[in-house]
Specification:
The protein has about 160 residues and is an alpha+beta fold. Strands 1-3-4-5-2 form a 5-stranded antiparallel sheet, covered by helices on one side. It is globular, with a radius of gyration of 16 Å. The model has no long low-confidence stretch (mean pLDDT about 90).
Length: about 160
C-alpha cells in the first residue's frame, strides 16, 4: 500500500498546506557520505524557517526578549531525499497557539514537485529568560501576533 493511502498515517503534505515561504540555499557540506542531506540539516532548516519568520514578522531581535521560545519537541517525516546543489523551499504553518506555546509544521520542497520531501514538527514553549529556572510564561504579544496569521484554522 502506498505511504499516502495508509489509513493510520497522515497524508503527504503539499505546497498548498503551508502559508509562509522562504527559500534557502543548500551547501556542499549539507550532504552526508551517502550523497543526500544530512538528517541534522533538516532540523537546522526547521529552526531557520521558524525563527526567520519571527524576526521578519515582529521586527524584533527575538533573542533579546525577556520571554524566549525554547524548543520543547521536534520530529521529522521523510518522504524523499534532498541534497546539494538545488535550493530548498521551506513552507511554514501553525497548528496550535496556546498560552505559552506554539506548534509549527514545516514543509521542505526541492524542485518543481508539489509534494513535500519532508515535514517537520517544531514546538516552542516560552520561558522567562531573566530567571535561571526558566519557568514557562505567556507568549509575548508580538510573537502571538506573528504566529496567529499562520494558523491552519483561524481563532
Amino acid at each position: 500500500m502506498p505511504h499516502d493511502t495508509h489509513p493510520d498515517r497522515p497524508s503527504r503534505p503539499t505546497r498548498a498546506d503551508f502559508v509562509a515561504w522562504r527559500q534557502v540555499t543548500t551547501r556542499w557540506r549539507d550532504d552526508d557520505a551517502y550523497g543526500h542531506l544530512n538528517n541534522a540539516t533538516y532540523y537546522e532548516l526547521f529552526d531557520t524557517a521558524v525563527n526567520a519568520h519571527l524576526y521578519e514578522a515582529t521586527g524584533l531581535d527575538i533573542r533579546a526578549l525577556p520571554q524566549i521560545g525554547i524548543v520543547a519537541e521536534t520530529s521529522c517525516r521523510y518522504f524523499r531525499e534532498l541534497g546539494f546543489p538545488a535550493p530548498i523551499d521551506t513552507g511554514l504553518v501553525v497548528d496550535k497557539v496556546g498560552r505559552s506555546s506554539v506548534v509549527y509544521r514545516i514543509g521542505l520542497f526541492q524542485g518543481p514537485s508539489d509534494e513535500a520531501a519532508a515535514e517537520g514538527r517544531f514546538v516552542h514553549v516560552y520561558v522567562d529568560n531573566t530567571d535561571p529556572a526558566r519557568p514557562a510564561v505567556p507568549m509575548p504579544d508580538a510573537i502571538r501576533a506573528a504566529v496567529e496569521p499562520l494558523l491552519t484554522r483561524p481563532i
